[in-house]
Specification:
The chain is an all-alpha fold. The protein is globular, with a radius of gyration of 17 Å.
Amino acid sequence: MLQEGFSFFKGNRKRRQSAVDTKLKNQNISNFLKKAEKSLLACKVLYKQKFFEDSLSKAYYVYLYFAKALLISKGIVVKSHKAAGNQFALYFVKTGIVDRKYSGYFSMLSKKRLLVDYEEVFLVNKILADEALEIVKEFRKEVYRVLKK
């Protein structure tokens, strides 16, 4: 877990290290936002080409990357998908920073992504893919709103 201002150095170096940590944190946030935006573009292309299963799967990753950007803004680094969902709920939903529906969306997209990627009989129609795409577009707006604060 990243900690704002954490330093292995003592004395005057701590302030300098804090600035470096903040710069690194901001760069990591930016990297996840770029990754989310790129994945959102891919999600839209897959949707337009009627690859609805792939579009839904990609929508989950868009959501995951946006959630990771938010978590990093709080100094939280996660290694697993499950941890991302749990920490997002703990630090953003339970604290009231975002509406609880966003935790539900995360869970729903995760379950559908697992079905799409690992079950051979789970078919996604245009309606399900459209719903997933609209959810990630809405979450995108919410993420940028929270990060502006």
